[in-house]
Amino acid sequence: MLAYIIRRILLSIPVLIGVSLITFFLTQVGGDPVRIMMGQHADKDVIAQIRHELHLDEPLWKQYLYFLHDFFTGKLRSFKTKRPVWDHLKERFPYTLSLAILSIIIATIIGVSAGIISAVKRGSWFDNLAMLASMIGISTPVYLIGLVFILLFIKKLGWIHGVGVWDAWLEVDLGSIVVQIWFPLCILLPAITLGAQPAAFIARITRSSMLEVVKQDYIRTARAKGVPEREVVLKHALRNALIPVITVLGLEFAYLLGGAVLTETVYAWPGLGTMAVQAFRDRDIPMIQGTVLFIAFTFVFMNLIVDVLYSWIDPRIRYD
Amino acid sequence: MAVEQRTPWADAVRRFKKNKMAIVGLIMVCFLVFVALFADVLANNKPIVLVTENGLFFPAVLDVPVYIKYNGEVYWPIFSDKFIELVKREKKVAYDDVMQIASYYGGKVKFKLMPPIPYSYDEVNLDEVRQFCSKKHWLGTDEKGRDILARIIHGSRVSLEVGVISQLIALAIGVVLGLVAGYFGGWIDNLIMRITDIVFAFPFLLFVMAITSVVRPGIDVVFIAMGLVGWPSYARLVRAQVLSVKEMEYVQAAVVLGASTPRVLFVHILPNVTAPIIVQATLGMAGAILAEAGLSFLGLGAQPPTPSWGLMIHSAQVDIDPYWWMSIFPGLAIAFAVLAFNMFGDGLRDALDPKM
């Protein structure tokens, strides 16, 4: 097991190097970053000074090493805010993390239960409806769901008082007393919106995985022994059916951690996604580099964890 | 007596026909293609057919008259440039203005057939901004008074173009690299597969965003960026298929008979991996359409006045209350297109690969 983990970590090193190389060279494609930032009519001396500060007068391979060094030591600074990119990342990551966790919980509950019921009642109206709904869920752009929610719950019904992040204290009027409960209501709509697509996906995977498992001999054995159907489904079948579901869950979670760019933008959620979009709009090269590198590294790291978890859950699988 | 043919493709068609969801998907895809192909005739402020005393015009689709009487002579501008040359010389105008002049000389209108939606996608009308659905504008108008339905109809072109071109680029790169990796193995295989790992390490949308924002936002950059980022899934797919096919006897036989490597790859191996590629390309279309709309929604994809569905929502979302139709209708169009390709692709997969 340990050997596998070590091997897996070693395998991801070239990927990480490649990722950093692509991130670095990508920002070279657009031409001189200082020109991009300052426009065509900037002062020559200022440009020369900035070029020197950013090591742009050095050869490319040195620039790349400087970039890595600056990134990991926190010296990489945003063109726009002049603050280290790391500070921004640290500020934004908790928002993305909490949103990702809540949406994956919502997606798992809805997806797994819908998938099980669909598989057990294969061909029923529920199955057809759930599969149609999941198809629509996968195909609908998140910002359409987001805009409909905003229109309905914020603008028309007024249940939720706005987008973005706001005071987490909720006042509940119990007649004689008013109780204040800590609940970040503002995360609810973004989390449901973001969870819709993974939910649809998980429902499909759970269903097909369950259908695969119930064909197995040990399920027939369990039934033949007279195990109650409920127990067959929930204990014998589900446990095995969940193995591929967990992989998908892990990957979806890794994906959500990368900043749900579109959902965050619709809800003005101050996570990594909106940070990335802002950096792209400003053409703030160090911010783009830092954000993209951070997100890609997170993604690679999460994939590593998923792989290790997978081989731990299902010892039959070893990638060698 | 005729014997029923049972080729694998015929079997696939049979399975596909039984799948209701797939058939609905196919119909939706055909509808989209139809709308995209005939967008100019479905929604246009120029008439489809215009017959005047002096000529015959198809203004919606043709820049020049079919025939026209000019100074007592009859010209056939679609067959010869004589008339265009004449007008250019006499009036000293550019080619684009010839049509205007031609219609000016057209004389009294005898017959005129307008498109069902008599608005073009870029026709600004500041007297009719942000109007709700009416008999005049079926899906309302946007912040510049442009007809939303006309924009949605022309937007189908943008979406399909993005889908087809980006998938073709991805397909071309992915198939070649996948074939090479799978067939030769060794360090080439290792290298190519590590590159796919690296590209997969970036979230798709983020990677494309990074490219378009650094190069220049615009629909053409989106095509290419999505192709460049999208190839690894094809490469992996093709490689896996090649690995399972290349040890088969018929391939070995071709090699022994002296077929060249490219011939073995493209003539003997590639046809056997087409089924999964078709499925991947169909589902990839759905992904590409969704991604383009997302990018344009962020303002980092198509630029005005391109009638991209995502861009329409981008400029309309600030007006969501109370002018919701300006963003919801284009959103539904995106969902429809993506749903169409997902349903069709899913059906294809079930039909072509009964094991899955």
Keywords:
heterodimer, A: 320 residues, mainly alpha, MetI-like fold, two-stranded antiparallel sheet, 13 helices, 2 strands, globular, B: 356 residues, 14 helices
Mean pLDDT of chain A: 84
Total discrete domains of chain A: 1
Stretches with pLDDT under 50, minimum 5 residues of chain B: none
Report the span from N to C terminus of chain B: 35 Å
Could you explain the architecture of this structure?
The complex is a heterodimer of chains A (320) and B (356). Chain A has one domain: MetI-like fold, CATH 1.10.3720. In chain A, 73% of the residues lie in helices and 3% in strands. In chain A, helix 6 crosses helix 8 and helix 9 packs antiparallel against helix 10. Chain A is globular. Chain A starts with a helix and ends in a 7-residue tail after the last helix. The mean pLDDT of chain A is 84. Helices cover 62% and strands 5% of the residues of chain B. In chain B, strand 1 and strand 2 form a beta hairpin. In chain B, helix 9 packs antiparallel against helix 12. The model of chain B has no long low-confidence stretch (mean pLDDT 86).
What would a concise description of this structure say?
Chain A is mainly alpha-helical and about 325 residues long. Chain A has helices at about 1-30, 35-40, 45-55, 60-75, 85-120, 125-140, 140-155, 190-215, 215-225, 230-255, 260-265, 270-280, 285-315, and strands at about 170-175, 180. Chain A is globular, with a radius of gyration of 24 Å.
